[in-house]
Amino acid sequence: MRCGASCAWGCSGWFWHLPRRCWRCLPPLRRRASSAGVTLSFAAGQTAGLASPGLRGRYSVDEGLARLLVGSGLYAQRQGNGGYVLVSVAPGDALELGATSITGNALGARTEGAGSYTSGSSNSATRLNLSIRETPQSISVVTRQRMDDEQLTSIETLLDRTPGISVQNIGTSRYGISSRGYSIDTIQLDGVLTALDLVSQNIPQTQADLVIYDRVEVLRGAAGLLTGAGDPSGTINLVRKKPTQAFQGYVGFSLGSRDRYRSEVDVSGPLGAATGLRGRFVGAHEQGGTHIDHYEQRKSVLYGVLEADLAETTLLTFGLDYQTSDPRGQSTSGLPLFHDTGAQTRFDPSDNAAARWNRNEIEAYNAFASLERKLARDWSLKLSANHLYGTREFSGAHASWGFPDQVTGSGVRLYGGLGEATQRQNGFDVNTQGPFELWGRRHELVLGFNWSEFENFHEPMRGAGIEGRYIDIYQWDNNTAGPTITGEKLMDYDGWQKQHGTYAALRLKPRDDLAIILGVRASGYQYRLSQIYTSPVLAANNRITEMKESGVVTPYAGVVYDIDDVHSMYFSYTSIFKPQSQRDRTGAVLDPREGDNYEAGLKSEFFGGRLNSAVALYQINQDNLAEADAGQTVPGTSPVQAAYRAVNGAKTRGVDVELSGELQAGWQIGASYNYSSTEDADGKRIRPTFPRQMVKLWTSYRLPGGWNRLTLGGGVNWQSGIHYTATTWQLPGIVLRGEQKAYAVANLMARYDINEQLSATFNLNNLFDKEYLQGLDTTFHTGIYAPTRNIMANLKYSF
């Protein structure tokens, strides 16, 4: 880029080459930035009385600004439109840029305003603050810039674009999350655990609006060190936006296909002069139709958070978010996947299995707090707590029970009812970490304890005129009689689980180019699931499932070797322990799943961390893996439940390849390839509903020169086919085979900066209008089709 009239070199491109006399004083900083082609915003009082040490040499834009601001107490924060905003530095925060250390917010700590598709640090694997390259596991970060570019507003859509993640829909806004062939059943909120319960359908975390989050970190592979009992799939950490040192904000409005609209507001900054108190308020509302007939969505979110500097070394954070979801015509299950002949059905993507009057209202409150204190010798202490309370009221009829006649459409029964559910979750994490000297070297240690409790109370009511009635699925037009409330509870379906654990991770540095991470966790786990019918006639179907484990030890080990300043090799190991609620053909609960997770790979960090790449090979060995027992059911269950069998010697092997960040100035990319296959001890592939291969690509490029107000982007998601085979007592002698063949979906984006504060973004999703099933429900044998081609236009004003 050209540095302006004061530069004797008159150079252009990605780098500055400035003489020392340039940018000597900070007061004319905006004028100098403008002449250099850089948009820089700040209040006049921020630079009063300040001077710069000047700059000589060849630097990137970010590094040049950082060096110019050394010692000023200011930091140039990069914005999504390519410009910069001067922000004051929080006391004690550290920024490393090349060989220069200043105070500020490093790439990776907070992605908002960084303009990047990657981050420089994460603690989701071990609680140690490590860069992606230093972490000996596969980890992906979806940044705020990536969310804004793709206009990602839901967890479901974001995860569908995340490397290595498969989203399996079994209903509208009801989905399972898988990685490496296994379900992810924990979501962290700022590092505090919460549990997912797909069966109860009361899952407010997965319905959360992304407007309140700074980034989403996804760790693939076993995560037992921090999460305790769980699958070797991974964990998802939703990191909330926090208050900023300087005043900032935006308002936005979006309009899209099918009368869909959305509005947002986000305001942040200090509350009063020299009070040490900062606040942030975020709100959003979205509603409109969908690609599915008679299905309309309506959701709102309000979020407030405060930060207070209790002392120079102590930071207190407290926040609350409130979210509502009030859809109509929502189907908690999909369309029948098979005809009564066993042939797979073919519906239009707009067809709906739900009655028009269906409702599924979810209301959730989420309160959180944290206390961070810096201790002597660079140690720190952090306490974090989270309380989630959610309610769900539902009534509905779903044409998803049975196998329709291919010609007449008869033979489908309405499945549904009405009722309510309440969920409470509490979580707590405390840890202390810091460096220590041993054998003349500097090492790091983290010690922590976390605890979580989940309660869900599900109370379906008796409703006349819905459950069990047969319809013609071709002719019913989503019209059917609504429920008649009898005032009598049908059953209590209650779940409860609690787990706690003490964990430790030690990072040894025997050499500058070698890091050895050793960790261990000791956990306790309790689980209870009760299904109690109020009718004596159905009492034979009552069941209570209980599990309890204590003193479960989960070891962890990782080695990272720096080949040079850019490339590192790593190896990691962790054990697997997962209690299971599935039952076999005799009604007995399967034993806990146990195994080992191995991973080795190569990670690279280019351009000072602005571009990261990773290649990983992994193998997962497991015993007692639950697998559907074809044609078998659990005795005494109503509705009839499929039985499972325990598979020993199961092996999952796979490859992860990822590239994320800035290829060159203005060109961001997120690209990945993932391969995963699970086989039993005989070498036969199992769990084929998880795609064996996935490719995900998204890139954006800000045009140079006179076109630099325009950013163009696009991407494609491709996955290999999925399938399953089953038999059912309803169609004796027929083998069902459900299948979704390989498919690719393309998306496009364009953004134009009208001026420094106003921008317009246009997104076109599913460019070629591809029709495909988003998942295969192996329990009810149903499927749901993905959104067809749609557009969304956004206007955003920043201040």
UniProtKB/TrEMBL annotation:
InterPro entries xref list: Beta-barrel_TonB, Beta-barrel_TonB_sf, Plug_dom, Plug_dom_sf, Secretin/TonB_short_N, TonB-dep_rcpt-like, TonB_sidphr_rcpt
GO CC terms of this entry: cell outer membrane
Gene Ontology MF, one: signaling receptor activity
Protein topology in the membrane: Multi-pass membrane protein
Residue stretches making up the Secretin/TonB short N-terminal domain: 38-89
Annotated keywords: Cell outer membrane, Ion transport, Iron, Iron transport, Membrane, Receptor, Signal, TonB box, Transmembrane, Transmembrane beta strand, Transport
SMART domains in the cross-refs: STN (SM00965)
The keyword Nucleotide-binding appears for this protein: no
Cell location: Cell outer membrane
GO process terms (BP): siderophore transport
CDD domains the UniProt entry points to: ligand_gated_channel
UniProt cross-references to SUPFAM superfamilies, sorted A to Z: Porins
Matches recorded under NCBIfam families: TonB-siderophor
Family assignment from sequence similarity: Belongs to the TonB-dependent receptor family.
Annotated PANTHER family: FERRICHROME IRON RECEPTOR-RELATED, HYDROXAMATE SIDEROPHORE RECEPTOR FHUE
UniProt-recorded name of the protein: TonB-dependent siderophore receptor
Organism the protein comes from: Stutzerimonas kirkiae
